């Protein structure tokens, strides 16, 4: 049976957490910043101290991500691919590391509702550049590691996953869909933030 995109995302998150716990015996740590609260944080802490975190399902009645994407569509005048809507509205999380046949990468997520506007601004900038260069609209969801010089995106028309470099045409098609692409990824341990 073919798994849905939501099932693939859930499976990747489950595998990433399982790997983390088996290799370190604990959740990853991040520096607590009271300016950037998140449901991902697992215990209260003082500002500047390390605190455990983990990816957390967004509430089904959380509309902040959907509202942000609706406003993005209104600004652009066209619809955003459903796979990208699903991707950014499924989990709150810091970026998660993974490896693939094409190298290491970092999967991007939203940390909190406050993060939605930052993402919207970045997506608008990216899409306006694509429009100016008369290239097909793509929407990023990951970047390459360790340099971060390239990124992975979803073609807004076809849903295909592409490797890109800022300001240039897509370099290489990696998968026919985000669902297929996730099936080719292996999670890596999540580094602590210092």
Automatic annotation (TrEMBL):
Coiled-coil portions: none
Protein name per its UniProtKB record: SecY-interacting protein
Keyword field contains Membrane: yes
Keywords, ordered alphabetically: Cell inner membrane, Cell membrane, Membrane
One Pfam match: Syd
